[in-house]
Amino acid sequence: MKHPAPASDESRDSVRLDLWLWAARFFKTRALAKQAIETGKIEIGGQRAKPARGVRVADALRIERGEEVFEIEVRALSDVRGPAGIAQTLYAETEASRLGRESARATRAAERAGYRAPESKPDKRARRLIRALGDIDAT
Fold first, then answer.
1. Chain centroid to CA 124: how far?
2. Domain range spanning residue 34?
3. Where are the alpha helices (DSSP H) in 10-91?
4. What is the CATH number of the domain that holds 95?
5. pLDDT, tens digit (0-9, with 9 covering 90-100), for 12-38
C-alpha cells in the first residue's frame, strides 16, 4: 500500500503551532516549543494556545523566549526546519517589538557594565583601609 505524499505548504491553510515555532527557528526542538506553549509564553491573537493549535497566515503571535519578547505576524507556513534565511521569511516582526528588544538588550548591557569585580584579592594595605572605613560607621 502506497502512502500519500505530504501536502505542500501552499495547499495547507494551517500548521501545528509547536511545529511552526520549531520550523521558524524560535526554539531548537519541538519539545522546547511545546513546553513554552504549555507554560503560557506563546500567545496567538492575545490568547494562550495549545501545541496542536493551527497557525494560519496573518496570525499575530507574541513569543517570550528568555528575556526577549517577539511580536510577529505569520507570513508563510512550513513544517520543515530549513536554513535561518528561509526561516526568517516565515514571519515579520513588528517595528515596536524590534525596538523594544534592542532597548532591553542595551539596558541589560548597561547594567552589567556598571560593576566590575576586582581582578585580585585586596593586598594588606587595602585590607587595612577597608577595615578602617568599616570602623567609621561604628563610632
1. 47
2. 15-114
3. 17-23, 30-38, 84-87
4. 3.10.290.10
5. 789 999 999 999 999 999 999 999 999
